[in-house]
Amino acid sequence: MLRLLILNLSSILPVIYAHKVHVGNKPQVRVTTALVNFHARIMDQWGDGGGKTWTIANDSYHPFAHRQFGGGKRREIRGTNMFGSGYPYGAWNTTSIARRSFPFGVWPLYWEDDFMDSSEVGAQLDTIRPGGHISIVPLRTTKENFTISQDEVYYAVGDSQSLISILISYVTWCHASLAWPTRFDPTSPNATVKLENVLQYYRASSFALASPAYSNPNSRNASY
Ligand SMILES: *[C@@H]1O[C@H](CO)[C@@H](O)[C@H](O)[C@H]1NC(C)=O
Ligand SMILES: *[C@@H]1O[C@H](CO)[C@@H](O)[C@H](O)[C@H]1NC(C)=O
Ligand SMILES: *[C@@H]1O[C@H](CO)[C@@H](O)[C@H](O)[C@H]1NC(C)=O
Ligand SMILES: *[C@@H]1O[C@H](CO)[C@@H](O)[C@H](O)[C@H]1NC(C)=O
């Protein structure tokens, strides 16, 4: 049943529809790669990804100077229900996300108790997080006999810009009801969704779909 659920969820993920639409104003995220000049790369949310891998400048102000980023392809975007998944490269330490590359430019999420050393990209850096601070949005469907029944609520968690563009896709193509993303603190003891509620990570664990009704018993066995 869970398997079916995940298949249904990924079938409504806007990334899959991306190539079918023609919209002039494509959602993009600016990924700053140096804090001493205007060096940046543009992440096109509807692009196929790929392209060159870059190295963040030798800039002592940048928290992740010298790290590799970019090059991840759209078809590599999907992870599993384990934090740390969804990396096409750079997941050299399966029990920690610290010192990993950023294959999609964006940073991974972070969780309470410094899970898998995720405080490396924690709240202290939210203001310079590519795509904006971590946010959450509920996803409900307004149509009957859609793959998700009306009383089920899922949550998308990610940077605010990604969430807004994905939300627009959901509303436009999937008949989801509109709700704005709100700021989300994944480390809060009463967070709407927690580590174990994640059904699926995407984009080097920078984006997640979660349901409070789901609990992954292995979620805290750090290994990915
Ligand atoms: C980085 O910059 C510092 C200071 O400008 C310099 O001392 C160091 O050699 C540089 N490192 C690399 C790997 O280029
Ligand atoms: C992998 O991460 C764990 C947890 O932070 C750390 O103890 C271990 O030393 C790391 N492995 C390597 C090879 O750095
Ligand atoms: C969807 O539901 C409506 C009413 O509940 C029904 O009339 C219609 O046949 C259903 N459509 C499909 C494709 O199941
Ligand atoms: C979370 O808990 C804190 C402290 O117990 C409380 O102040 C806050 O209102 C709670 N937030 C929500 C959304 O319930």
From TrEMBL:
Protein name: GH16 domain-containing protein
Keywords: Signal
Lineage: Eukaryota, Fungi, Dikarya, Basidiomycota, Agaricomycotina
Species this chain originates from: Serendipita indica (strain DSM 11827)
Domain of life: Eukaryota
Signal sequence extent: 1-18
